[in-house]
Amino acid sequence: MKINFLMKKRLYFLAIFLVLVVISIGSMSMTQFSIAKCFASIPKAIQWGFGNFYPAGDSFARLPEILLKLQETLLISIAAASVAAIFALFFALMGSRITKVNNFLATLSRFIANVFRNIDVSIWALVLLFSFGQSSLTGYFALFVASFGFLTRAFMETIDEVGSDTAEALRATGANYFSIVFQAIIPMSVSQLISWVLFMIETNIRAATLVGILTGSGIGFLFDLYYKKMDYHASSLVVLSLVVSILLIEQISNYVRRAML
Amino acid sequence: MKTLLQFKNVSKHYDKKTVALSDVSFSVNEGELVSIIGPSGAGKSTLLRCINRLIDATSGEIIFEDKDVLQIKNKSKMRALRTKIGMIFQNYNLVERLSVFENVLHGRLGYKSALVGALGFYSEEEKQQAIKILQSLGLDEQIYKRCDQLSGGQKQRVGIARALIQEPRVLLADEPIASLDPSSSKVIMDQLKKICSTLGITVLVNLHQLDVALNYSDRVIGISKGRVVYDGDPASLTDDHIQQIYGSDREALNLVVREPKEVAQKI
Amino acid sequence: MAVDNQARSTLINGGGPSFQKERIKLRLMSKSRLAIRLTMLALAILTVVGFLTFDYRDVHLLKGIMSTFANFKTIFAQPQLAHFSLSEAIYQLLVTLSLGVLTTLIGAIIALFLGIFAAENLSNKKVSNVIKGFVALIRAVPTVLWVLIFAVSAGLGSVAAVIGMSFHSISYLTKAYSESFEELDAGTIEALEGCGASWWQIVCQAVLPSSLTSLISWTFIRFEINFGVSVAMGAAAGAGGIGYDMFMDSAFYYNLHEMGVITYLILVVAMLLEFMSLKIKNKVRS
Ligand SMILES: Nc1ncnc2c1ncn2[C@@H]1O[C@H](COP(=O)(O)OP(=O)(O)O)[C@@H](O)[C@H]1O
Ligand SMILES: [Mg+2]
Question: How far is A195 from chain B (nearest CA, A)?
Answer without folding.
Answer: 16
